[in-house]
Amino acid sequence: MRRIHLWLGLGIGLLFAVLGLTGSALVYYTEVDSALHPVLQSDAETPAPDWRSPVWDRALATGRARWHAGGGKWTLEVTGHGGAIPARYYAMQGHHADRTMIWFSPDGARVVRAEPWGGYLMTWIYQLHMQILAGDPGMQIVGWSGVAMLLLLISGIVAWWPRGSWRKALMFKRDAAPIRRMHDLHKLSGLISSVLLLIVVATGVLLALPKVAQVLIAPAPVPTVKPQPSGQDRLTIARALGIAHRAMPDGRLTFIDIPDSATAPFRMRFQVPGDPHPRFPGSFVFVDQSSGHVLAVHDVRRLGARTTISSWIRTLHDGTVGGTTTRILAILLGFVPAFLFCTGLIHWRHRRRGVATAKARDAVSRLALS
Q: Strand, coil or helix: what is 130?
């Protein structure tokens, strides 16, 4: 088991360290990005637009006037506070397709910032963490490497498991040689963080491999709605929001997906009481863009235990589960894999040098005897 732990650590330890450090950087990635771009906070005192505000339609018109492509999908983010209004423009279809990140002025009349996803620091770090800068194949690599990381953690625990005194197994030998103290630091830091690391890595695997998560957890899928065109005028965003609000009155709006075709519906994303993730909750309301009918309601509270379990994956992974305290803990936890990799590598190299020195002495002794 120690040999398995060693070779897993040498094989994926560096990737584990990189994912841990980038994960720490991403815990507050929207806040860090705002701090790096003060223009986003220049009008922070402006009240956030509400359900009936014309700002949403004005922002969409401003964006469409600048990006003249015939197709494409628009998503507006509802932050709930003043300042710039974030949005996403997908010129191509697909959740992970290339997209432009856009920020509108609080009145929706101007574009104050526009950058391609992955083209600025925080999204570059996000892509490194999620896909090792290799697109969808990189996401698969990260996901399946995460399985190996789970084995690395489990093998470390099994290799450490005491055969005798627990007190001795948990002891830090202050007066031992430096390399022995480093071994103890590697052992104890791994043990102290092992449960949290197992949770973070396991949830990361499920996020990177959504098809695997679907098989293992089987949450209720978000419905695919295909309404028929009615020939009526399209609803404004404000009217569609009012209809969605009545369908889910206790929900907090987080995203507005604008119809990208004549038959596609509005899709409003909500956080309902009991849904743990504040930014990417799991409830949706679909509103027909012509008739205004509510086509479907996906409420995580009414979809069973499997959907409830699924809704906790992201919030356990990014540390938002307990607010500021757990987010700070997630930042500190992200440094642990790098520390374990460095101390394990140094200890392994020291042992190799010791073995090589012993072999050399043995060879000299045999020559002397001959």
A: helix
